[in-house]
Structures are given as structure tokens and as C-alpha cells.
Amino acid sequence: MKKLDYYVLDVFTDQRFKGNQLSVVYIEDELNLSQYHDISREFGYSETSFVSYSEKEGVFKVRSFTPAKFEVAGAGHNLLGAVCLALLKKWDIFKNQQGRPWVLIKDTPIPLKVTEESGLPYVAMKQRPSKIINKVPVNLLTEALGLKTTDFDLNGWDINIVQTEVPHLMVPVKDLGTLKNAVSNKPILKGLSEKFDFEGCYLFTVNGIENNYLAETRFFNPGIGIDEDPATGTAAGPLAGYLETLGYIKKNRDYKILQGKYIEHPSTICVNVANDGIWVSGSSAIVMEGQLYL
Asked: What is the pTM of this model?
């Protein structure tokens, strides 16, 4: 019987029992695909990350899976929590690197910035510059989200698919009340994601926002088994890039996005649009650790 160390973290927060829950499993060697799927389903969180350190490549490696057997790439909470865990446990994951630190998610290198605040690591992950891929007509989303056509009227902004690492649908809604009242119709939303080739649906508003947040958001991704996600770094980056393209925010400034409020796991995602990419950052807190058996 083989034992593997595991950890559970709350990500995009500096407090336990908030943020986005992530299970992280340390592995010495690659598992077979069915083992990745079984372990991810056993934890049941939106994603489980499997981490290892390659002495040969001199890099910390991460693979992430959902309970629905979908492998997740990109710089989101699955990567942030894994890196924060390594730093909290004082694993020397950057020992053989020169210059800016980086890690590997699946097969993609992700540049990082690492700082510390109040004894916790704060990690910024660099995503690619955002690009607008396509529009989705508003009338197709009314039934998918339980809203009226007028609920999507926010500054005249379009409903666009935007991508940095992963294509997500940016859905502006008019105010906080509308954001709260949205209800995901999973079959319809999944059908739209397949038809228009995007992953998740990122509802947001900038009206009535308090506590210096840029926007408040909600994220639905039934296509990979996520009913509602408390924090989604791979969607926050595209949102920041989209708002910068619209002229609503400026480059090289720090902004905060609030997500997860309506499922009682409020998360703070920090974003900064640079000329050559988008930085998405936050911290994490360890909640549990133990061993699992294969």
C-alpha cells in the first residue's frame, strides 16, 4: 500500500475557511490517469493539484484535475495554492533557477513574482496578454442565467469570450442585485460553452462595489463539473484584460476582484495588466494535511 501526503488549502485568501478550497497531493513519480481521476473525485473540490519537484529540469511541476476527469491548465487557484503550499512548507522549489522564478503547469511554464505580507507568501502568476475571441448574443444567455435582457446592460459592454490561458465568457450585469439573482441553468450553459468554444461563464459588475474592489464576480463552469467556483484566476486575468481594453482600468496598476461571496467563501483576486501579460496574485492558508493510500 502506497502512501501520499496531501494538503487542503484555502486559496485567494489569507484566512482559513474562506477563499477557494484546493486539495494538493505530493507525488514522487507520475501516477496513472485513473489514479489522478480517482483521487480528485475522492476529494470532491473543484480541482485537485498533484505536485512534484524535478531535479533534472530544476522546476516545480503541477498537474490539476477536476472530479469530472478534466485536466486543468493555466495560472489559476490550482497553481497558486500549490506554489503557496511549497513556500509555506519551505520546500526549496526555486533552488536551481536563475533570474525570475517559474513553475510548470502541465507543459506550460508560468513566470512568478513572490513576496511576503504578514508572514504569508503572496504569489503573482503571469498570464499571457488577453485577446477577445468572439461575442455571444445576449438573448442566448437569458434562460441560461435566469435573467432578463435588460439585466445585461452595463455601460454598453458586450458579452465577449476573452482568453489569456483559457477562454472564458465575460458577462457584464447591471448591478449587485442582478449578480446575486443569477441562477445557472447547467444544461443550457454547457451547450453554449460547447457551441461557442469557451470554458466558464464569468458574471461581473462594477456598479455599487465597496471596499476598493474593482468588480464583484461569480463563475459557473458546468462543462467541467464546477457548479460555482469561489475564485477563478484563469477568469480574473481575462476580465482585467477586457476592462483595460475597454479603457475602464489602466495598465501597471493593482486592482482587486471579489468572488465567492454568495457561496460563503469570499475570495480576493489581485490583478495587474502589464504590457506583456497579466499578473494574477493572492495568498493561501493551509487548513488540513494528512496521508492518503493507493
From this structure: 0.96
